[in-house]
Amino acid sequence: MATATQSDQAERRTRWITVLLLAPSAFWYLALLVVPLAIVVVFSFGERAAAGGYQAAFTIANYLNLPARAAAFRNTLILAPVGTIVCLLAAYPLAYYLAIKASPRMRLFLLILVIVPFWTSFLIRTYAWMFILGGRGLPAVIEWLGLGEVRLINTPLSVLIGMVYGYLPLMVFPIFVSLERLDKRLIEAAADLGSNPWRSFLQVTLPLSAPGVITGCMLVFILLMGEYLIPQLLGGGKVFFIGNALVDLFLQSRNWPFGSAVAMGLVVIMLATVTIYLRVTRRYGAGRDVSLL
Predict the structure, then answer these.
(1) Is 191 helix (H, G, I), strand (E, B) or coil?
(2) Which of 145, 230, 234, 280 fits a disulfide with 158 by CB distance 3.0 to 4.6 angstroms?
(3) Within-domain flag for 240
(4) Range of the domain at 235
């Protein structure tokens, strides 16, 4: 009887410790995510007040008016996936070299080079790209070489270049971690069994690095979907993202209900993307378990 009582007290003490440890993060989650999201949902069904802002009402007119911002949705839904794919194509060879081929000293040196851009402000780096892609930068060099006049700044290409530059390190590190944990003996075994390097890569390296690839793609894609600064500076107001539309609606037009509806549209897109991500990773994990068995 005494033993059972002591066990109950220990279990109750463990439960309270768990509650106390989770309380700060739970409060943070409710205060900074759930409550603001609930406010945005309420605002999205309201009306714009006469002087701007929010007026209590219940209407779906804001959602029916979403096609008015079709350009922002289109640009975001095109350039964000394209930027993610370009980041992946650029990051994978670098991560592969860092994890598989590079010597420890060279690996450390290259990892520092990948991290160095984070030591300066993202705003300053984007301003630097405004000069590089501007009329006196790369286009002037191309014209000097006799290749004709080229305009880069304020185009979708300039926004894409800025996005790849800004978010490439976030793609490199998850893939690098996956490849570094890869058992190199598997590659050697594939070679011993007569597999050529390309086939070993497709059947061994790439599947085992898939978690890093998926994580890197999700990390970059989610951040690109909410990007504001790069389209604003390198797009020159001609390449609008959803983030730019939200700034315009909330701060300039002061149409908070319509801005909230646009924000909810972005949330729905992100929820669908994360759902697909979870299903893919779950399926991959199940398949990997089966293969290991």
Answers:
(1) helix
(2) 234
(3) yes
(4) 74-257
